[in-house]
Design brief:
single chain; alpha/beta; 7-stranded mixed sheet; 4-stranded antiparallel sheet
Length: about 375
């Protein structure tokens, strides 16, 4: 009741702000858009403040060097290199394996294929061949027959990319068996194997394995520091000495070689030491959110499908579309993303707890009860064009 009163007061404020032509600023703000929205904790900020730094482009930043050594050791690889973002790190990885005219194989939902601004083609002259397979994953049956013959008409199949956890694939986790199977197939066919592990540690926690279990199965792995681990920026690419040296050159070419990067590497070391095990809480909160919204008429979700911190759900078309629902949720201080015409994504992270996600589920219920489509009016959002 107190909560409903709180929301109604906020709506009054929102409406009067709108009538004054201002952007409304609701008091409640539960941001479930992504795990990238986290802000560094006080302890992480202290680690940043105390970081020893040097010129990383000359290999002289002791904190970056320590972080890279930690990552390489964790994954049982020879080397690691710090990158500005997951996109940069993926693109550095694939460029270390491929030459112009080569092709990579990836699930059709893969980030590398869809959300990296055409990076493989633009930065490395690489063709992306997308494969339709369940949950954003790839298995041997999906890959069989996809390696192109040695023929002057064809590009050269060079690389297989997997995403773990899958993002648009639904936050799903590859089991260790599955990775072992695909890795053996990739090696038998003399291809290279890259993992987009933007949320690798979510996968490891949910899948019950370690970085050391997965490292030997892959040629390169990119992990993001700025997602579930809660750092302000950064990614790491791990691989062989040779691949990482090549990736370092690409990082320079892509404009991502930094100077006193120890400032951000210190945050990552803090996250490795403090923020990995707690990812299990994000998974529990995601499940609690999924269970709560599964009770709402017009919301389509199977909570048993939720494996990590990403919750995708669909909204019945007769109620309105995802973009309209996202708009009303935002006016009420709950932020989620439209992931398709009827599909929304909510993501749990370090900066939201169980009471936040349950409150967000309540606001979602209110939006549906109030008739969000009529309140918001026509909107197709970023995923549909007339
Ligand atoms: C699976 C996956 N790979 C790569 C990235 C790219 O990371 P960044 O935003 O740091 O470039 C993301 C970001 O959301 C992602 O979800």
């Amino acid at each position: 009741m107190a909560y409903r009163h709180h929301v109604e007061c906020q709506l009054d404020t929102v409406e009067s702000a709108v009538s004054r032509g201002q952007t409304p600023m609701p008091e409640t703000r539960i941001d479930l858009r992504s795990d990238t929205v986290t802000k560094p904790t006080a302890a992480m900020r202290e680690a940043i403040a105390n970081a020893e730094v040097g010129d990383d482009m000359s290999g002289e930043d002791p904190t970056v060097n320590r972080l890279e050594a930690m990552a390489a050791e964790m994954f049982g690889k020879e080397a690691a290199v710090f990158a500005c973002s997951g996109t940069q790190s993926n693109q550095m990885g694939l460029r270390s394996h491929c030459s112009p005219g080569d092709e990579l194989l990836i699930n059709e939902t893969g980030h590398i294929a869809n959300f990296e601004a055409g990076g493989p083609a633009v930065l490395s002259g690489v063709t992306v061949r997308t494969i339709v397979a369940a949950d954003g994953k790839l298995d041997i049956a999906d890959l069989e027959g996809k390696i192109r013959a040695d023929n002057q008409h064809l590009c050269v199949t060079r690389l297989v990319c997997v995403e773990n956890t899958t993002n648009s694939g639904g936050g799903k986790v590859y089991s260790l068996d599955h990775l072992e199977r695909v890795s053996a197939w990739v090696r038998d066919h003399d291809l290279k194997f890259h993992m987009d592990g933007a949320r690798f540690f979510n996968a490891a926690i949910a899948g019950g394995y370690t970085a050391g279990d997965v490292g030997p199965l892959m040629d390169t792995i990119s992990i993001c520091l700025s997602k579930g681990l809660g750092c302000p920026m950064g990614s790491l690419l791990v691989g062989s000495r040779e691949e990482v040296a090549s990736a370092r050159r690409s990082r320079k070419l892509f404009g991502g070689a930094l100077r006193q990067a120890g400032i951000v590497a210190a945050a990552a070391i803090h996250a490795f030491e403090n923020h990995i095990d707690r990812l299990a809480e994000d998974h529990t909160n995601a499940k609690a959110f999924a269970n709560a919204i599964a009770e709402i008429d017009g919301v389509c979700i199977d909570p048993n499908e939720i494996e990590t911190n990403l919750v995708f759900f669909d909204i019945a078309a007769e109620l309105g579309n995802a973009s309209q629902l996202v708009a009303l949720l935002k006016q009420k201080g709950v932020i989620m993303g439209a992931a398709g015409p009827q599909r929304l994504r909510a993501c749990t992270h370090l900066d939201v707890d169980q009471s936040d996600v349950l409150q967000a589920a309540g606001v979602l219920q209110d939006c549906i009860a109030e008739g969000f489509a009529e309140l918001v009016g026509p909107s197709t959002g970023p995923y549909a064009r007339g």
